[in-house]
Amino acid sequence: MSLGVDPGLSAGLELVRRPIAATVLARTVLNRQLVRVTVGAPELDRFEYTAPDHLVRIFLPPQPGAALVLPTTERWWPELQEMPDASRPVVRNYTVRAFDPGARRLGIDFVLHGHGPGSTFARTAAPGDRLGILSDGADYAPPLDTDWQLLVGDETALPAIAAIIEQLDPGARALAFIEVGTRADELHIPRHPGVRIHWLHRGEPRPTNCDLLLRRLRETALPTGRPYAWLAGESSLVTSVRRHLVTDRGFDKSHIYFCGYWRRMND
Question: What pLDDT, in 10s, does the model give residues 209-249?
Fold first, then answer.
């Protein structure tokens, strides 16, 4: 499934700004923590995709087995708020992992942790199941004068990091630090000659370990030149890494994108 968009495909077509009704086409187990759900919809040729960390809002039935009722206009948020609780869909954000506008197919990778709506859906998703999807923008934007990139995250950031690496220019340079539970949770990412991937294994059952990733970063000699950093994952992990890069490594704050995808609850 292609990750880029043929700019000629949607020429003259108006992008869809409201939720799209989509159908599950396939469910693929990637490893013990990640499941890819591939969906299709006739209007996906008008789905806006701009960068490898592009987000998609998914709309799920309020309860398993309930009917899916979607907002029908571009003013979807107030429309959603006016829906009765019994029919209001659950909304979550995920990364577009793969997109083929010609085939009108889109892939989303779900991390199976906890019992939230997204994980519950991904565990049981089957061809024919229905959900809503809505393009929600992207943030990955290295400045033109970037010499090398630093990509940091945990399992929840892995789909975006993998997509970024796959879409890098052949001459680009990057370091990726990805924290997962064990070696079994690593995911194959096509080799890029300018990318070095550091897999960090925190062990189980800990959901994240800021010290492990920060220690490896501090021990690693970073390339010279103008860097761009993309950081995502657990909130405290992302905040700690950003602080280290700015305070200890002299990174320009404007050249760092960071986002807390989730927050670890206190033990």
Answer: 568 899 999 999 999 999 999 999 999 999 999 999 999 99
90, 59 in Cβ contact below 8 A?
yes
Q: Is 14 within a domain? A: no
Domain residue limits at 32: 20-135
Is residue 66 located within the same domain as residue 126? yes
Distance from C-alpha of 103 to C-alpha of 96, rounded to nearest angstrom: 15
- 163 and 258 part of one domain: yes
Find tokens 């009722």 and name the residue: 69
**CA pair distance 20, 243, nearest whole angstrom:** 39
Residue at a domain's end among 83, 109, 135: 135
- Radius of gyration of the chain measured on its C-alpha atoms: 19
Strands 34-40 and 20-29: antiparallel
Residue 154 and residue 177 in contact, taking contact as beta carbons nearer than 8 Å = no
**N- to C-terminal Cα distance for the chain?**
40
Residue with tokens 């506008």: 101
Domain count, the chain: 2
Q: What is the pLDDT of residue 203?
A: 84
Specify the DSSP element, H or E, that contains 256: strand 256-262
* DSSP classification of residue 157: G
CATH number at residue 245: 3.40.50.80
